[in-house]
Design a protein that fits this description.
Layout: E1 40-42, E2 45-47, E3 53-54, E4 57-60, H1 79-88, E5 93-99, H2 126-140, E6 143-150, H3 167-180, E7 187-191, H4 211-225, E8 230-234, E9 238-239, E10 242-243, E11 266-273, H5 292-305, E12 311-317, H6 323-336, H7 339-342, E13 348-351, H8 374-379, E14 407-416, E15 421-429, E16 438-443, E17 449-454, E18 456-461, E19 464-469, E20 481-489, E21 498-502
Parallel strand pairs: 4-5, 4-13, 5-6, 6-7, 7-8, 8-11, 11-12, 12-13
Antiparallel strand pairs: 1-2, 2-3, 9-10, 14-15, 15-20, 16-19, 16-21, 17-20, 18-19
Helix pairs in contact: 1-2, 3-4
Catalytic activity: Endohydrolysis of (1->4)-beta-D-glucosidic linkages in cellulose, lichenin and cereal beta-D-glucans
Pfam family, one: Cellulase
Keywords: Carbohydrate metabolism, Cellulose degradation, Glycosidase, Hydrolase, Polysaccharide degradation, Signal
């Protein structure tokens, strides 16, 4: 993000109702059918090694770029449980910010609890911890984009180099990471530098400021070390007098495209935020939020719409407290194109952030590093997409002699205004094997009807409702959970007894 590193814990978010009609993402292809191997591009789409289109629908997990030199939250959780939870919520890709500090020999992580958790991280360097995260993410079916977030842990830089971290170090370290994970297609790409901004330019020809030229130098260096990687190139702040968020201005790519030595490896990336980060003129325009698609088209959406290249919204986030932010996020999700309607022919994205300790946005997790902000997560439901299958070895659940999967469900009314209500149902894996799918059934005592449901699909016969997991949240790890929400009418009914069955 373009502000100073968000360290302060966010205050607990006020309960906000998800927009009516938010629906869970539906897989247009089976999760195991796409995503294998390294990826490449074709027009505005990203394709896997077999030529099948995929959609990045992911989350940012920050920390390696900070003075901790490791992802945050490992003081509270085991890294494997975090990754399992991300997958259970339907995120299929991790964007991992880092600083060049972690490539200094002997850099050690700080604030990892190895007492009963993270025991296999004890004594490892920061890079070795990254190796462990990459390995487990790959085993779990998640892909990773490495994001060179800043030159060092001290803070964000406008340009890709500083007095203490010259361009040569930046390129050397990018090549080192590309080589380190060569042959491991869990790491599918590298975001060359986070949020270039003024005085960075695009197409001005000044090699000390022209981000487009620098991205070509760095991108081609990465491809010389591993020609299979995707090269993610963010925008700048200003172009021809037009300014937007740091890293969010890709207007110059129309006249000055990034040229790479290996074809079909370029992905353009933008960032976009709401008022909890900073006020912008478009938020107070009388036509807001209807004006937003035109703004996004102008700065970065045109690249996708003109079939020039894939576009990845690498960061977007909000506390969701101001009502204007709620409208912004709803409009942005619609703009990014729902998976149920467009499938993989859509914008790619990674939400900011998994971490709750992003001071101006908060995260998908609440301050306890365990509880999911289901309201915020529900907004993203329409644009979530299938995962990519796991790379683990050994027999999976369901083999001869394996125990049967079991689950429980808890139904909670989050709001009731008489004419209608909203409820949340949390499914918990209470067995000893992972769930592959689940189903929750209940019978209302009154005349209630489901009017909308997100993160699950449903059928209703009389007063009896059966809800079935969505494509992205059927897999629930041992002791993990998945949630779905619903709207119904009329209100005033009692909480029904629920029954959960699983396979």
């Amino acid at each position: 993000m373009f502000r100073s590193l968000r360290r302060a814990l966010c205050v607990a978010a006020a309960l906000l109702l998800p927009l009516a009609g938010v629906q869970s993402a539906r897989a247009d292809v089976a999760a195991e059918a796409a995503g294998a191997g390294y990826w490449h591009t074709s027009g505005r789409q990203i394709l896997d090694a077999a030529g099948q289109p995929v959609r990045i629908a992911g989350i940012n997990w920050f920390g390696f770029e900070t003075a901790n030199h490791v992802v945050h939250g490992l003081w509270a959780r085991d890294y494997k449980s975090m990754i399992d939870q991300m997958k259970s919520l339907g995120y299929n890709t991790l964007r991992m910010p880092y600083s060049d500090d972690i490539l200094k020999p002997g850099t050690m992580p700080d604030s990892i609890n190895t007492d009963g958790k993270n025991t296999d991280l004890r004594g490892l360097t920061s890079l070795q911890v990254l190796d462990k995260i990459v390995a487990y993410a790959g085993q779990s079916g998640l892909k990773i984009v490495l994001d060179r977030h800043r030159p060092d842990a001290a803070g964000q830089s406008a340009l890709w180099y500083t007095a203490s971290v010259p361009e040569s170090t930046w390129i050397t370290n990018l090549k080192a990471l590309a080589a380190r994970y060569k042959g491991n297609s869990t790491v599918i790409g590298i975001d060359l530098h986070n949020e270039p901004h003024d005085p960075a330019c695009w197409g001005c020809g000044d090699t000390s400021r022209d981000w487009r030229l620098a991205a070509e130098r760095a991108g081609n260096a990465v491809l010389s070390a591993n020609p299979e990687l995707l090269i993610m190139v963010e925008g700048v702040q200003s172009f021809n007098g037009n300014s937007i968020w740091w890293g969010g201005n890709l207007m110059g790519a129309a006249q000055y495209p990034v040229r790479l030595d290996v074809p079909n490896r370029l992905v353009y990336s933008a960032h976009d935020y709401a008022t909890s980060v900073a006020e912008q003129s478009w938020f107070t325009d009388p036509s807001f939020p209807a004006n937003m698609p035109g703004i996004w088209d102008k700065y970065w959406g045109y690249i996708f719409k003109q079939n020039i290249a894939p576009v990845w919204l690498g960061e977007f986030g909000t506390t969701l407290k101001p009502s204007v932010d709620q409208k912004w996020l709803a409009e942005l999700v619609k703009y990014l194109r729902s998976t149920s309607t467009y499938g993989t022919d859509s914008f790619h994205w990674t939400f900011w952030s998994w971490n709750p300790n992003s001071g101006d946005t908060g995260g998908i997790l609440k301050d306890d590093w365990q509880t999911v902000d289901t309201v915020k997560d529900a907004y993203l439901g329409p644009i979530k997409a299938p995962g990519f299958g796991g790379g683990g070895t050994g027999p999976g659940p369901g083999g001869p002699g394996d125990p049967s999967p079991t689950c429980t469900a808890a139904y909670t009314v989050s709001s009731d205004w008489g004419g209608g209500f909203n409820a949340e149902v949390k499914v918990t894996n209470t067995g000893t094997v992972a769930l592959k799918s689940w189903q929750v059934t209940w019978t209302w005592s009154g005349s209630q009807k489901v009017t909308s449901m997100w993160n699950a699909s449903h059928t209703q016969s009389g007063a009896t409702v059966t809800a079935v997991n969505a494509a992205h949240n059927g897999n629930v790890p041992v002791a993990g959970s998945a949630s779905f929400g619903l709207g119904g009418a009329p209100g005033g009914g009692s909480v029904p007894s629920v029954r959960c069955t699983a396979t």
